[in-house]
Amino acid sequence: MHSRLATNSLSTSPAARAVRSWRGGSIVPGRGTLDLRVGHPVTVVESILGTPDEKHFLAGHLFYIYRSQGIDVDFGASRKRVERLFFYEADVEGHSRRAPVNIDGIGFRTPKTKVIEALGKPDCQGGPVRVAKRKKTWIYYASGLEFDFDSQDRVMIISVCDPKLNQLSKRC
Amino acid sequence: MTAGERDVRKQNPQRVASFEQQRTAVKRLVEELSRKPNKTPADVLELEKVRALVKHLSKKRTEKSEPHARRGERH
């Protein structure tokens, strides 16, 4: 069972209301960016990104969806601290703007071959799967970094998590 | 076939095979999505959708056909 909450009427901290568009930055695997990090509490995320466009409870996890900033934040089952950060290319899975992030020169629409060339052989990979009317494949590095590729094998989602969250032996 | 057996509900083998084929394809998708370490909200929704579809197809697969018409049955 999951629910979708309208967030317009929810009270937020003054810091969350005053936030301007996030400037983004370089991604550190397993950590996030310089200011937006895995492990941050909800209040810190709200002070950086503002009030989310939507909040979802899916499979026991709390997700903050920032459609206009191209970011989703997964607070996990604890619903208190950031477990995963998702950065999207524009027009992917309902996000209107591309998140302003990159990693070692790799950004959105970078070909899969270039990602593997730069970061090495992934520890886990999969797909194709059809999600939100798009066929996608993915590669995952044990450092807590994942790339989702579109049907043309170009980066469309970059996600970061604490490497301890994903035990690869069970999956790959 | 005796009169008693005429009424037994049966399964259409072609229908069973078709549901089994669909179920296998959808189960493969469930496995593939479950393996994905970082699931986006859309991935989670899709996974819930295909899991429900596997359940539905499993139920349909074991469903029996309609009973044969029973002529001369007293109501």
Which descriptors apply to this entry?
heterodimer; A: 172 residues; alpha+beta; two-stranded parallel ribbon; 4 helices; 11 strands; B: 75 residues; mainly alpha; 2 helices; rod-shaped
Question: What does this protein look like?
Answer:
The complex is a heterodimer of chains A (about 170) and B (about 80). Chain A is α+β, with helices and mostly antiparallel strands. Chain A has helices spanning about 15-20, 40-50, 110-120, 170; strands at about 5, 25, 55-60, 60-65, 70-75, 85-90, 100, 125-130, 135-140, 145-150, 155-160. Residues about 10-20 of chain A have low confidence and may be disordered. The longest helix of chain A is centred in the first third of the chain and has 8 residues, at about 40-50. In chain A, strands 1-3-4-5-6-11-10-9-8 form a 9-stranded antiparallel beta sheet, with no helix packed on it. The radius of gyration of chain A is 16 Å and the shape is globular. With about 80 residues, chain B is an all-alpha fold. Chain B has a domain at about 10-60. In chain B, helix 1 (about 15-35) packs antiparallel against helix 2 (about 40-60). The mean pLDDT of chain B is about 80. The interface of A and B includes residues 72, 138, 140 and 160 of A.
